[in-house]
Model the fold of this input.
Amino acid sequence: MDFLNAIVALSNFVLVPAIAYGSQLALGALGVTLIYGILRFSNFAHGDTMAFGSMTAVLVTWWLQSLGVSLGPLPTALLALPAAILGCMLLVLFTDRVVYKFYREQKAKPVILVIVSMGVMFIMNGVVRFIIGPNDQKFSDGERFIISAREFKQLTGLREGLAIKTTQGITVVVAIIAVALLFWFLNRTRTGKSMRAYSDNEDLALLSGINPERVVMYTWMIVAALATVAGVLYGLDKSFKPFVYFQLLLPIFASAIVGGLGNPLGAIAGGFVIAFSEVTITYAWKKVLKYMMPESLEPNGLVQLLSTDYKFAVSFVILLIVLLFRPTGLFKGKSV
Amino acid sequence: MIVVEDVHKHFGGFHAVDGASLEITKGSITGLIGPNGAGKTTLFNVIAGVLPPTSGRVTMDGEDITGLPPHELFHKGLLRTFQIAHEFGSMSCRENLMMVPGAQSGETLWNTWFGRKRIADEERALRAKADEVLEFLTIEHLSDHKAGQVSGGQKKLLELGRTMMVDAKIVFLDEVGAGVNRTLLNTIGDAIIRLNQERGYTFVVIEHDMDFIGRLCDPVICMAEGKVLAEGTLEEIKANEQVIEAYLGTGLKNKDQLEGA
Amino acid sequence: MSEPFLIGDTMTGGYGKGPDILHDCTIAVNPGEIAVIVGPNGAGKSTAMKAVFGMLEVRSGSVRLDGEDITKLSPQDRVVKGMGFVPQTSNIFTTMTVEENLEMGAFIRTDDFSQTMEQVYHLFPILKEKRYQAAGELSGGQRQQVAVGRALMTQPKVLMLDEPTAGVSPIVMDELFDRIIEVSRTGIPILMVEQNARQALEIADKGYVLVQGRNAYTGTGKELLADPEVRKSFLGG
Amino acid sequence: GGHAKEVKLGIIFGFTGPIESLTPPMAAAAELAMKEVTDSGLLLDAATVTPIRADSTCVDAAAATAAAERLITSDKIDGIVGADCSGVTGAILANVAVPNGMVMISPSATSPALSTAEDNGLFFRTAPSDARQGAVMTEVLMEMGIKEVALTFTNNDYGKGLATSFEEAFKAAGGTVTITAAHEDGKADYSAEVGALAAAGGDRLVVAGYLDQGGSGIVRASLDSGAFDTFHFPDGMYGALLEENFGDEIDGSTGQVPGTDSPGAGTIREMGDANGFDGTSSFVAESYDAAALVMLAMQAANSKDPADYKGKVMDVANAPGEKIYPGELAKALQILKDGGDIDYVGGTAVELIGPGESAGNYRQYEMKGGKITTVKYR
Amino acid sequence: MSEPMKNTFLFALVGCLILLTGFMQSWNTALLILNMGLISAIMAIGVNLQWGFAGLFNVGIMGFVALGGLAAVLVATPPTPGAWSAGGYRVVLALVLGAATVTAAVLVNARLPKGRNRNMITLAILVGGFFLYRGVFDPGVAAIEAINPAAAGNIGGINLPILLAWPVGGLLAAGAAWLIGKTALGLRSDYLAIATLGIAEIIIAVLKNEDWLARGVKNVIGLPRPVPYEIDLQNDPGFVENAVSLGLDPVTASTLYVKLGYSVLFAVVLLVLLWMAQMALKSPWGRMMRAIRDNEVAAEAMGKDVTRRHLQIFVLGSAVCGLAGAMMTTLDGQLTPGTYQPLRYTFLIWVMVIVGGSGNNMGAVLGGMLIWFLWVQVEPIGLFLMQVITSGMSEGNALKEHLIDSAAHMRLFTMGIVLLLVLRFAPRGLIPEK
Ligand SMILES: Nc1ncnc2c1ncn2[C@@H]1O[C@H](COP(=O)(O)OP(=O)(O)OP(=O)(O)O)[C@@H](O)[C@H]1O
Ligand SMILES: Nc1ncnc2c1ncn2[C@@H]1O[C@H](COP(=O)(O)OP(=O)(O)OP(=O)(O)O)[C@@H](O)[C@H]1O
Ligand SMILES: [Mg+2]
Ligand SMILES: [Mg+2]
Done:
């Protein structure tokens, strides 16, 4: 029994949240990694693209809710997704047309594009706050939990509860589907291969009859879809707040890098590495040990490797260690 | 001078160099030939310190140089060119050459602030030298051109030009001829012979052009599938059945038909 | 004489805003013909090829394919029109496997290209061995084979090769020339830059010598080979 | 000195940056006070009061200094309402306000360190120092018989200062803090913190953070994982969002905010409703009071020159005199004009002590049926 | 327009912008912008050394700037009474022990033959060392932090003139850069970028959480200055007399005097650094660096020790950033670790370098000054824009209110627009590399 309790406590506070957070990061990292893989720059505007997509979803969700539409136990926001993705696509395609295209034609160095994407980030940032304001916005509805801690305790009679949120479930499922689709798309389909070809050698892609503008357009569209989905799922799980999407950028980049830029599998792996390192290294094992150990050996300290003050630092330390042994990430990413 | 003892280089499960042993005598111009993918370039890279060998040993004048980094080998007098040109794209052709000599006093930060006179003198000499080499390579008109924006063959010439900027003991040339005009290649061949005779440079030359190999090289080593297949004068090699089958072939099949048609 | 199938007619042009590299340079090729361009390094051979393929601006003159003026078309439109090109440098997708490189060659084809792929593998057996390896990990000569293979996959109506034999071993070179002859026999015009000039001119129907962006000598392959001046200055004696 | 037709007041808040969602109602409240005074036509020579906003960014000292510099030297303001975050407040004070002799009244900089900052008598705040709150909090918890708590704080001078003073006071009173874990604001995920907090355990989780920042994230994650279901909230966690976001999920949780049973707080809320801002949001009442104090001090000194009125701030804020509530600024101006004395109470029962900071009255509340219900005042 | 003409024009333009600020807003604002602009220019030079010369994508500027700031505290503040005896020596001992542990582990790793044995021993040393370190360290820290936590609680400094903190800041940053470079410089492009970004975050985390060092998030305020205090000037009859004779009121005169003092100090540092960087760039050293940037493999084959040179320039560039960081903290008069944000202290500097023109020192300086000017001035510009846009709308219009309320967000928005515009018309920067 105690052993079960220990497992449940560990799952509840470490495994489930880390898996869910990891999937959230992975979804974001997929977008970043795709841009890097194909358009060859680190897109700083990705966080704000996510914010824009989610904002559209929030607005549509509100509208749907006001019409009384709902999805039963699932959040209504899922219904709003297609519209939001469309909105986000329009935005990024527009951005590409008026901003990035110019530098592509100039064959500007990647770092220029990085800085340009910062400019885009500032602008999107302003646009989002301008439209919906800087505040927290709630738009989630439906069933919050697949199983809540209380229900779990009643169900099993254990002392420890295990909570799994609907959004966590959806996020994990979506992340897995997204990565599988993307992997298949890039490695198996003609369009996907042409995208990789373009990213490898633009001039030669031209000579093979690949239309670069098409490739770029597809890339942005996929990225917009990924960004919106990631943003909405994140917003459902926590709440929608523009500033946080900007902050999310850092762990997302870290995930993409640890996994290896340009590789969808890497994005997933990276997301989990970052999430698990944040959650486990600073976890206080006291509770788990209390169940596992005989009473006499019970720890009186917290049994915490490092205090949570350093959680962010820890994930970066892990990132560094990974990179020292694998300089281009776990899955041999690209580098320009 | 250079002794390669049972060198292996594996990429994953693939054995690019598979137990190659050879010896390069001082003052020779050794030709290294072999089919595409025989492992010639890989062997060069192992000797020049770009790739660590999976196993085996390389010595130079009796000293073990296995795994030494390229920049140290450079200072020991070992120079090499790259099969796929590695120019410094954003620098002018002249700068591409001027950067080569080691031990420039201007490469020490301190001197750039407090030893400007000395640097200026050195630079003048270097510049003259670089211009001389550029002229020899018939690209003097490109001296201020960015190296990233010259023709494919010209990049190969720069590649070669770099080795002419310093006094080397041994120079590894990896297909300097590919993409270079044959008339110019002849001149280059002459220069190699001259350097070899007058200054005692040792050369190792990878080439697929048998005329060029024939004019310059003795001995010739033929590699195939990561191993040394044959070694000897070009005549001997040309007569070797295995070499013909793997590398030289028997000439155009279609040509006669073409002429017949 | 009637209009050639593909002609870059009195082309003048250069890179970006830079000076003219080509000066009234003309190259042309007809079905069933092999045209070879030779000349010293930096003469503008590659530039001429790129100009014909629309990869740099032709400031005066024109490019015509089968009588149609294509001077203004983008490279990928020319691919669709049936032109195939192997550039001199960076001519493979280094991060993609050999097989994917070939597939990309067939990008515009909608029919089943497995047959063509088999032919390419037959021509360059080493590529079949390395079909799942990243092309960037190949040796210099192997890369060159991939590059040519990629262009063959297009099944082009006209094939342009910029130094296809640079760095390939004699046996492969012979095979390659054989194949080129074969291809040209099927009626496909071939335009080729070569430094292996003597061998190339031997099989050439037409030869151009470019010097400093200008046509210096033009003639059949045999004529040029026989011209002592040309031999001495450009073919290495 | 001298009379003037126009008074300009700078409002330096972090309109962008980590507390950007708190600042708009704060600024609106301050501006409301100014409008009230302008409309009354009683300040000095019936002066109009013009607010000029500037962005402190909350975190970028250099940008904040530049903004303040511009307000003082270029817009020629006569007083500053702000800044908001303690860090930038200190920078503006030392680099701009003191050198230029400008009065600054901050509604929300609560760092104890500011109590001892070199200020030439120019700096005041309507928010109490966190040192005081720690003690109040301990009292509240002890009275409820809670002896063991877990503590998380937002990792800045506010959170850290509050956490330290609380921990000290709580331990001194015989309580135990099982863990003190910092959390960073605006981060994506708080599972790690909640995991550690849950493992350490405690009767209650004290969240010394911001309601619309990491604090909410911590509460949300704690609730969802079942780690804690009752909390104790210091001032940064108070606001309408508490009811909106959590409602009855956190029934039984407690907290305290600066506040009094004086009717002022209610008035501010109503004024907010009438003018389209959230009167219950954090530091909104303090902002109103800060602006009011500047103007009342001017009136008392009969001058808009900071050098003249800086000495009057304490006088108008404290007894003796007629008690003044929000919305009664006209009355106060009149009294001062007539040479009378006032004791400004405002929305937060302002009482300035020591180095010019709020003495600190607190309202203790509890969540009941998803509503914030006042328990008592202390 | 010829090259030098264009460049002179651009610098003149920035000068004019600052002068214009002086006339339109106030001279204090203008000088303040100038001062921070000078510091930004120095940081930009540091980044340009690393990126423009050597192609190192260092996105950890913030960390080095913060270390410079730490130096200011450690050098210029008075020591906290009793802190050293309470726990200071203990902490130093602990740090030495920690360093010894790492050194021992590295040595063991280098000396012993590969294998399980080596791994076990290394691990044992590291784990044992960690506990030993924590055992010595924690009580020391607790003791220091217990001393008057509201106002001190840290070890304090050594009470030397703050000008000394500038070179010390450079050294501190250089030391950190050396350590980082030794481990992380094997990484390339964006991998190096994120690694350095992470390291900067770690440095900030340490500054925020190690209260014994510099009070952590409780901030250190009131750092001493290298220039006089305004109040003292205002109380100095001689000064007041001079001010009045110049037709200035004493308050304005004193604030201007102080700022001018800073300007001169900063300008001197900037000019010296600029000269040094220019000389280095134009010399064979600069040529070698560019060669390494263009093609590492070839440079290595041509006898250049790429690793060492990368380390050298990484340390140099970081030192410059550290120096600038110390200068900035001096100007601010306070160290507030919570305010170090990558956006402001890393990416903004990068924007300066890229907009100015990477690979060109003059470009970096220009970019530093110009972008800083814009960073400060876009706020009023944004507000102004909003007012212009809304001027046609009626009073009380909801949209108008919304627009005016959103004006503050227009700051970043405007910054973005300006950035894109500049890069559109000068995609390689205003003064590109030749
Ligand atoms: N990084 C690598 N990873 C995997 N295989 C490699 C790698 N580099 C080279 N190879 C393989 O090793 C073999 C030898 O290559 P190498 O470049 O040495 O050939 P080479 O003799 O120089 O041929 P060429 O005449 O075509 O230049 C080739 O089959 C190549 O595919
Ligand atoms: N990208 C470029 N930008 C500017 N100038 C270029 C560029 N590429 C080549 N050039 C210049 O154009 C001229 C002709 O180059 P081109 O590549 O056409 O020569 P080529 O005849 O193909 O020579 P090679 O036999 O060496 O390949 C050269 O002088 C070269 O300096
Ligand atoms: Mg080779
Ligand atoms: Mg060419």
